[in-house]
Amino acid sequence: MNYLIGIDLGTSSTKTVLFNENGDVIATAGKDYPLYTPNNGWAEQKPEDWRDAALETIASVVKESGVNADDIKGLGISGQMHGLVMLDGDGEVIRPSIIWCDQRTGKECEEITEKVGAKRLVEITANPAMTGFTASKILWVRNNEPENYAKCRHILLPKDYVRYILTGEFATEVSDASGMQLLDVPARKWSDEVLDKLGIDKSLLAKVYESPEVTGTILPEIAEKTGLSTSTVVVGGAGDNAAAAVGTGVVEDGKAFTTIGTSGVVYAHSSNISIDPQGRVHTFCCAVPGAWHVMGVTQAAGYSLSWYLDNMGEGYKHEAEEKGCGVFELINQDVEKTPIGANRLLYLPYLNGERTPHLDPDCRGVFFGLSSMHTKADIARAVMEGISYSLKDCRDILEEMGVKADDMMACGGGAKNAVQRQMMADMFGCDVNTVTATEGPALGVAILAGVGAGIYPSVEEACRKMIHKDPAKECKPDMANNAQYNKFHKIYKNLYGCLKEQYKEIAKL
Q1: Three-class SS string for 138-175?
Q2: Which of 20, 54, 79, 163 has the fewest Cβ atoms within 10 angstroms?
Q3: What is the pTM for the complete model shown?
Q4: How many angstroms separate the CA atoms of 9 and 166, rounded?
């Protein structure tokens, strides 16, 4: 039997999973690490923490499984995107990594837009300048820490730093590189035009591979530390969402997935490049060679439910403790007794501004239609519907761009809630499914490793072998419900336009 390792380098922890070639989990291990906020709006992590977590968890799964090292054929890494890792000429870390959620680079985004041009930037990188992306972080270091910038000889993304530790190779791949704002996304290579206009030396950047391509093998000293073989190949891997797509089988046209974590994501596969000129959604290269993905992101999906529970859900919490059940068991019971539209109550989930479809940092959450008749059950249903409407906004933009998705997979915390899944199926008007595996990105990059190791001929074929839908959790749409949801969604969409100017006014106060 052949075996594959998937490493998921997240913001709070690294999880490493050993799979067999059929996609069955053999062993798992995880390790947490801190996030540092030295100033308001800043977010940094130490790359050395990622290194230590990867080496420790690899050694753990190899030891726990008892699998022969030579039978572990490939390894893939998924990572939090956009983080800036700067190394000196000796390959040593120069400063902590500025990670994806850092917000210090507003001026640098203006600088990028001015130097490249707003329209041209979207044409090349498929996205407007954003504080989360890597290019603005590079400029921030150059503008504010010139001594560190002068030392820099290599710029890597978080997962690619771990790759360097494992293989000694400076490499990245197209899906993660798409989020740096330095890649020509249609051409799948570094953009000389953007680099020249920003004054960034291309020699600082790693070689770009396709996600299932072999980028190197395990170094002898790493093999000794982890129990791996020096013949184990390390493939390009993928950014976290691209890896999750592979891990849910979203690797062909017509397929998409939605995630309800803290934020919400609707991600659709496309064999043709499609870029939204308004920049409402992100277009990146995906982990399937020669294909792309289009992704809408909402800021406060699962976070809306957390906020509701923390501030208005104490009654549910106390009742759950008394009955010894889960909070969402009680919420779901109430939501199912409440009619579609929550008795004419709508919730806009813009607690922290919004990305898709509005790209508006000033918009805020709203309960619209609130009256004395409304109960905690109505409010709970309105929050769940508001989250789903925000995801439907994302899906509607994808369809407007010609990216159709009639097969939707659900993953993340929201995928575990059957009521939320059915709500999405009814709103989207398509089947919503889940997979039996819960490893998501780790499984996705293990699949890519299986292709790179020659176990499977293609990503699509590997997914058919290693991914299994959970038939017990399939949700089929009720088209009568779909018609009702469409009426409320029309009002929901109109509310932002009515409030847009008022959001700006209140932000000034």
Answers
A1: HHHHHHHCHHHHHHCCEEECHHHHHHHHHHCCCEEEHH
A2: 20
A3: 0.89
A4: 14
> For strand 214-217 and strand 44-45, is the pairing parallel, antiparallel, or unpaired?
unpaired
**Number of separate helices (H) and strands (E) present in the chain:** 18, 23
Q: Active-site positions?
A: 240
What are 153-190's pLDDT values in tens digits? 999 999 999 999 999 999 999 999 999 999 999 999 99
Side-chain half-sphere exposure of 401, counting CA atoms within 13 A? 27
Concatenating the DSSP letter of every residue in 337-376 gives HSPTTTTT-EEE--BTBB-TTT-BTT---EEES--TT--H
Under 8 Å between Cβ of 280 and 359: yes
Q: What is the pLDDT of residue 437?
A: 76
pLDDT at 411: 84
State how far the Cα of 82 lies from the Cα of 107, in Å rounded to an integer. 17
What digits encode the pLDDT tens for the residues 449-460?
999 999 999 999
* CA count, 13 A, side-chain hemisphere, 244: 26
DSSP-assigned letters across all residues of 447-483: HHHHHHTTSSSSHHHHHHHH--B-GGG-B---HHHHH
Q: Write the CA distances from 360 to 258, 299, 502, 509, integer angstroms.
A: 22, 11, 12, 17
Looking at residue 279, its pLDDT comes to 85
| Residues in the chain, pLDDT under 70 | none
Terminus-to-terminus CA distance in the chain, angstroms? 65
How many Cβ atoms sit within 10 Å of the Cβ of residue 43?
21
Q: Which amino acid is at 481?
A: N
Other Cβ atoms within 10 Å of 18 Cβ, number: 26
Q: Tokens 């059950």: give the residue.
A: 377
Cα distance between residue 298 and residue 242, in whole Å: 17
Tens-digit pLDDT profile for residues 446-504: 999 999 999 999 999 999 999 988 888 999 999 999 999 999 999 999 999 999 999 99
Q: What are phi and psi of 253, to 5 degrees?
A: -60, 145
